[in-house]
Amino acid sequence: MPTETEIKLRLPGEWAVKPILEDERVQACLMKDFSDTEMDAVYYDTEQGELDKRQWSLRLRRENGVSVACCKTAGGRDGSLVSRGEWQVFAEDWEKALPLLVSEGAPHELLALSGSLVPRCVIQFTRTAAPLRLQDGSAAELALDRGTLSAGEKQESLLELELELITGELGEMVALAAYLEAKHALSKEYNSKLARALRLVRSR
Asked: Cβ(67)–Cβ(60) under 8 Å?
């Protein structure tokens, strides 16, 4: 099963972005220069919240204009470190996306949701990201996300750092996260973007 393993950290302010990007330890690990991607994501569920009850999510996200459908399932958590199932396919709508996701290994139950999905919240942000090669040979992506979470007229700002494991063991990525947290006055983020956006939905 494809697995997403990541650590999220909150930034104290926009002023912290540049020092993180230029940090000597980060620069020493860069495999490519940082680049920006415009992300416009809409999360879906049924009116009865069947996905939320299972701790699953369905997302259609345009990444620099390209539409990507994603399914995530519940996983394990150790503090701010999260591992969960994740599948992604290129598709413009759920009629096309759901069969493709299931063919890639996503839960078969998704097919029964076709036609009953409704948008719940919107997350728009710019991702500044680059791949890293860490000291033990493992690879990770460092991403800085800046934007907004929206549900109807309610909005919340988004400013966070993500480290996601690409290959190898977790140790060096966890160590890098701890270093960045201490040096740049970051704080652990225990909730996903979707969880924070759903708080806005419930408060409407």
From this structure: yes
